[in-house]
Design a protein that fits this description.
3 helices; 3-stranded antiparallel sheet; single chain
Length: about 100
Amino acid sequence: MMTETVNDVKIDEKISIAAQIPAKYKVIMLNDDSTPQDFVTSILCLIFKHTEETAKKLMLTIHEEGSAVVGIYTFEIAEQRALEATTLSRDNGFPLQLRLEQE
């Protein structure tokens, strides 16, 4: 059995790949009257990886201004960290709220 090969195949199509940088999302922590400031500070350190000093400054900003951006991530990471913080808060009986906003 003989196989013929064709060497004169011409491809005129060019493949273009448009790579896009994923959108970033801000995780915003909201103030409430029930969640203790120490608990907020611990969440900022534990989940959002802030230093103790930065976490205290953010906690005061949240308390005084009503909200603050606690991190900027891709959507999946922002969603996961907000979910972890909300779950930890609920497990401890606090109504802490977070929201995501596209940057």
